[in-house]
Amino acid sequence: MSQRAKQRSGWSAALVVVVIASLVPVVWIVMLSLKTPTTVTDGSFIPHQWTLSNYKDIFNAGVFTSALRNSIGIALISTALAVLLASAAAYAIARLDFPGKRIILAVSLAVAMFPQVSLVGPLYNLWRQIGLYDTWPGLIIPYMTFALPLSIYTLSAFFREIPWELEQAAQVDGATPAQAFRKVIAPLATPGIATTFIIVFIICWNDFIFAISLTSTTKAETVPAAIALFPGVSQFTQPIGDIAAAAVVVTVPVMLLVILFQRRIVAGLTAGAVKG
Amino acid sequence: MSTGVATAEQPAAVPPARGQHLTERAKSERRLAAMLVGPAAIVMVLVTAYPILDAVILSLQRSDLRFPNATKFIGLSNYGHVLSAPVWWQDVLHTAIITVISVGIQLVLGMLLALAMHRAIFGRGAVRAIALVPYGIVAVVAAYSWQYAWSLNSGWIPKLLGLTSDPLSHQFTTYVAIIITEIWKNTPFMALLLLAGLALVPDELHEAARVDGATTWQRFWRITVPLMKPAILVALLFRTLDAFRIFDTIYIFNQGAQGTESISMLNYSTLLNRLNLGLGSAVSVLLFLLVALIAFVFIKGFGAGAAPGAEAR
User: Fold this and answer.
1) Topology (CATH level 3) of domain A61-271
2) Is there a contact between A107 and B38 (Cβ–Cβ < 8 Å)?
């Protein structure tokens, strides 16, 4: 028994290490964002002079606020569309008997493994021809596509856990399959859908490669792309304080989601993963 | 892929094994399934298949946006250019180094993290939330945080290690910094995938082995690992493919300077900095084939076929 107690305290010590390792880079970027321009390059972990001026700077510059608006709008719309399409597909996969089920899962898996940079060239070319370059739909379409596979897997895993006897009961009472879906199953499926929404939102919010390739102005540029292109005082200096402040602002919503919904995110990510 | 769509769109077509007499109910079930699956399938196939076909076509052409009028069909010569260029093979090597080292370390740390999360007695929720932070953080932000931490100009790491020359101006230390960034960002996801497999290992087996006198180490290797093999393979497959496509971290660190250029970085700069769509598309197609090859080796060779969704009936 005492050996087990020793092991347990060993694992607890490991968890302390995990917590520190997870948080140091986050705390570091926060600290950087609070340094004054003269001390930002002093290499000290904790600022010698504290300031909020970096935050004032970025919110006064139009580039960042429009990027924030683009990020929120594009991520929300892409996520909503992906979850909507995936919910329908996942319901069919979890519930209905039809040929081609394995093929749709294989297609999803293939899309999930797709090297996204391979699409950048053709999409860049096509978007410029049909006027989608540097627009919201120009980003929403690829985001939605690459969010679909994970959404389908996660949702079909959740949907399989739902007590389907209720659906059968509704059908016995005369409901069509479509009605049974809408009135009985949809409410039961809401937690799984919410979880998938959060996970997919994080993916869309984080994207960089499409954002930097398919946008060029404040019309559609999202925060990750805007940060990477922040103009410095001169060509050779990066505005470290501004970048750090913008990084903190774009991180806050995701951190809140992760901390508030950690149980659901873990359940969602592991539900979509292999079972035996 | 195209057969997938065809099947999904025409589910009423009767497969031979199913027999001739579908009930009215089964038919309506198939119609409903087609309506439900159709939109997602069409979006995925259109948005990926069309551009990849376009990439294949572009890769067979001389197509340079700086000389739009000089576009013409040139066969496989773009591929010849890419495959005979030392930069391609160097970038394949860079990508392979980063992938193998970072995924290998992620597997070890991810397993430890999964075991720790599995066994933790206190603060399980809080620890899990904090361990998820690197997963949730924007990749660009993670890269900036680590880049500024390593840079001699601003960072605490050179100060801590007492370095006098910039670690990010040397190839070896730049690799160390990039790989640490990748490990930090991706270990939580690896741990979550492994945690799902860990939950399937029955406690009774461990108890029985313990009674028979097996040590912790023996039980880990003889019980936990074999039972988790499918989960480990899937986690490795996903993480390897993702690491192989590394772009964000390298773009933010140095856009591929110091001999760290990855294939995705090369692809991006050929397409969007040099605007050479023909050559860039050849790189895209080659990258696509490499990724497909890795997936094939994992799925056929190691039997990672029990990938997510294999449990789908």
Assistant:
1) MetI-like fold (1.10.3720)
2) no
